[in-house]
Amino acid sequence: MSRKHPILAITGSSGAGTTTVKQAFDHIFRRENVHAAFISGDCFHLHTREEFEQILKQGAKEKGGHISHFGPEGNDFDALERLFESYGKDGSGRYRYYLHDHHEARYQSQRFGTELLPGEFTPYEDIQPDTDLLYYEGLHGLVKSDRHDVARHVDLGVGVVPIVNLEWIQRMHRDRFVRGHDAEDSLATILRRMPDYVKYITPQFSRTDINFQRVATVDTSNPFIARDIPTLDESFMVIRFRDVGKFGIDFPWLLSMIHGSFMSRRNTIVVPGGKTGLAIELIFTPVLKWLLDRRR
């Protein structure tokens, strides 16, 4: 952890709702004039998309049969921990981009003056100097392994995780309609990733300071036949604080500001899904001010 160069880690799998969280933080950063260094966890993949597909075809069984982007065989935890340690020390570090689609590839190809393809990485570059904090969004912001402890460098850890059936619905919907995969391929991917999900992803949500867990209010009992993703208005967001006193959270004020919210435990507030963005801004604006006051 670092008072001078704080690190904010948003941890959750793709489709879990991290985009909604980032949009809310963007509003806070603009309003509070916060200059953040944005880091995507995808840049710490070990392999390009083509390389990873070849590994799956040729050598998955040699890796225990479940190599995935959730575990160390698919990610460079060394580079992630080096970045967090370097930034916490003096605000420096190196990062790159993973190119998800043709739009990103064209933009970065123009920026670097070289041809880059979807599924590849940009060259490494330095974080801009004089940033106020580092904002990480990805799978492993608080990960621990036999050789790594990324979580020890994080000043504010936020988990974004829907209940598992809802997460599977979101993942299968994305695989089918965005990536063109069929249902059997999506199910095979879920099963292949499960050991790494249980070992490396799930434990992180016990290390976070605040968790956002989306719970649908419609039937998700069989996620493998669901045609639609439940909307935010068909959901509640369960927000759990590990240490109520750490940030001085004012629950009565939150309850008065967020219509339809209620307390389910002494450290847990439940808000209507459609109020998630509002809840994030109300909760994190004073928390970020606290982090930046420590920095000064």
Distance between the termini: 15 Å
Shape summary: globular
Q: Helix amount, in percent?
A: 25-40%
Taken in chain order, the helices and strands follow as EHEHHEHEEEHHEEHEEH
Task: Report mean pLDDT, rounded to a whole number.
Answer: 88
Rg from alpha-carbon coordinates: 19 Å
Spell out the blueprint of helices and strands:
Elements: E1 7-11, H1 18-32, E2 36-40, H2 49-59, H3 77-90, E3 94-95, H4 102-112, E4 125-126, E5 133-138, E6 156-160, H5 164-177, H6 183-201, E7 210-216, E8 235-241, H7 251-257, E9 262-265, E10 268-272, H8 276-295
Parallel strand pairs: 1-5, 1-6, 2-5, 6-7
Antiparallel strand pairs: 3-4, 7-8, 8-10, 9-10
Helix pairs in contact: 1-8, 5-6
